[in-house]
Amino acid sequence: MASDDRRSALLADDERSFLEGSREDPEELASAGRVFLEMVRGFERLGDLNRCVTVFGSARFAEGHRYYQLARELGAALARDGYTVMTGGGSGIMEAANRGAKEAGGASVGCNIKLPREQTPNRYLDRFVEFDHFFVRKVMLVKYSAAFVVMPGGFGTLDELFETATLMQTGKIESFPIVAMGGQFWRNLQTFVEDSLLAEETITQADRELFRLTDSVDEAVAIIRESATHRE
Q1: Residue 196, SS3?
Q2: 143 near 122, Cβ under 8 Å?
Q3: Can you say whether residue 21 is alpha, beta or left, with left for phi > 0 and alpha for psi between -120 and 50 degrees?
Q4: Which DSSP symbol is given to 91?
Q5: pLDDT for 17-33, tens place per residue?
Q6: In a 3-state reduction of DSSP, which class is residue 11?
Q7: What's the predicted TM-score (pTM) here?
Q8: Separation between Cα atoms, residue 32 and residue 105, nearest integer Å
Q9: Contact (CB, 8 A) for 110 and 122
Q10: Domains assigned to the chain
């Protein structure tokens, strides 16, 4: 465990160095090589996925929390509908969605990130890939999915939500469903989006409609299924 912690710390130091600014060319080329190899490893491990839904959410919700249970029910429902459930591979919401999928006999996949604390692969994964760089991990979480469910979380979850929405807004990926689940947690954000972003015209109504809010597992799966039917 100590060696794993040391390796995570060294990787964090390497990434901080990479993002601090200009360096000597050999260092930059070495970083580029590591990123390239990380991408290739992800493609090799995940390239055969299809009918995949990515679930985003916090690592910090324990098994007894209502959001954990909601994600577990969602994972099971998606699996029963024939979807592979992909998450960031960690604890909390990620574990719950993977757990539900596995319990329902479906495929459960994780894209884990090496961190000094809080992020270890959960035990409900049929397949997982471990990444050093957040941005490579996010590519994989988006690349193979045809829909996204975002549940309550912190900065990382918000980053994943808004980056996915931005990719759709700018036409970099197709406009797949983004379903937000978690009640008042997302309604507060919806108020900000409508009263600030939309009111000040920094987004359009079409941008606002990129994501849907519901706390119904059945409705979430129906939204995803309907979108897939329209694309066929």
Answers
A1: helix
A2: no
A3: left
A4: S
A5: 767 777 777 888 888 89
A6: helix
A7: 0.89
A8: 39
A9: yes
A10: 2-231 (3.40.50.450)
